[in-house]
Amino acid sequence: MTVRTSTLESGLSTLSDAELAAVLPTATATGGSRIREVMAEVFKRHHSAVLAYARSYCRDPQTAQDLAAEAYASTYLSVARGRGPRHAWRPYLMACVRRTAMEWSAQTRDRVVLPEDFNTWAERLAGDAETEGALLAAEETALIARAYRSLPERWQVLLWFFVVEGEPAAAVAQRMSMTPSGVRSLAARAREGLREAYLRAHVDEGTDLECRYFTALLAGAVRRPGRRRGRELAQHLEECRGCVRVAAEFRRANRRIVTTSLVPARPEAVQPC
User: Fold this and answer.
1) What end-to-end distance do the CA atoms of the chain give, in Å?
2) Could you give the dihedral angle defined by the CA atoms of residues 134, 137, 142 and 144, in that order, rounded to the nearest 10 degrees?
3) Residue 135: is its pLDDT beyond 90?
4) Which whole-number Å values give the CA distances from 71 to 94, 95, 126, 143, 211, in the listed order?
5) What angle in degrees, to the nearest 10, is found between the helix axes of 180-200 and 128-149?
6) CB-neighbour burial class of residue 88 (10 A; exposed 0-12, middle 13-18, buried 19+)
7) What's the predicted TM-score (pTM) here?
8) Residue 58: helix, strand or coil by DSSP?
């Protein structure tokens, strides 16, 4: 992905996360000031979500602040060395939070609280060279799990037996007092519901209520591009840079949905996240 100079001059806040990452190779070559500008935008954009995530691993608010800051500093160093994320910043930052919490817990248990099965999960990771990739994969699994849990219970049950367990439609129909054709029809609706919920899972939980309302509309609009956007949504996008950026992120995540099989993981893959 290339980013035009005119776009950069208009401000980093207009760029999607993927476009911010695309700026970095040039920024690394031209000096540290551009890197600082990019990372300042990343911090402003994702700090509240990363801090909320860090709180789940810490015994007190100050430690959570320290953990989030350490994750940001680690990402900054990786970027300065020509590494770091290529597309999504938030999963990368959260992976850094998880990894740093794991390192801190080895030194002291006074500040960090890890889930009971965290160490068992960590031991199953690949060698050091592949740990970062495994952590990122875990964060992606967590997004899918959050989307799955947000669905109506009936959809969750059907997706579990029909998609994850791979049971025949007739068997699922008997379990759920449905017809096989009803199972297939509801499965199509549940799959689409999961895809939209997956897009919404990328939105910061600290986003204000008005923008959360419009990002829910955006998820449906991205999944059904042939439909015209409502006047209310179109007007909001003209006024809100944040939601324009979310729309770009939704489109990128939607391309990932198209090229991958988006299904909930089995419990052993979900619980550690």
Assistant:
1) 31
2) -160
3) no
4) 8, 8, 21, 19, 27
5) 120
6) buried
7) 0.52
8) strand
Rounded CA Rg of the chain: 20
Residue 195's pLDDT band (boundaries 50, 70, 90)? confident
Domains, the chain, with CATH or none: 5-114 (1.10.1740), 144-270 (no CATH)
Q: What are 58's strand-pairing partners?
A: 112
pLDDT in tens, 263-272: 555 443 333 3
> Would you mind telling me the total number of residues written for the chain in this entry?
273
As a whole number of angstroms, the distance between CA 183 and CA 225 comes to 26
Beta bridge partners of 112: 58
Kindly tell me if the per-residue pLDDT of 7 is higher than 60. Answer: no
pLDDT category of residue 250 using cuts at 50, 70 and 90: confident
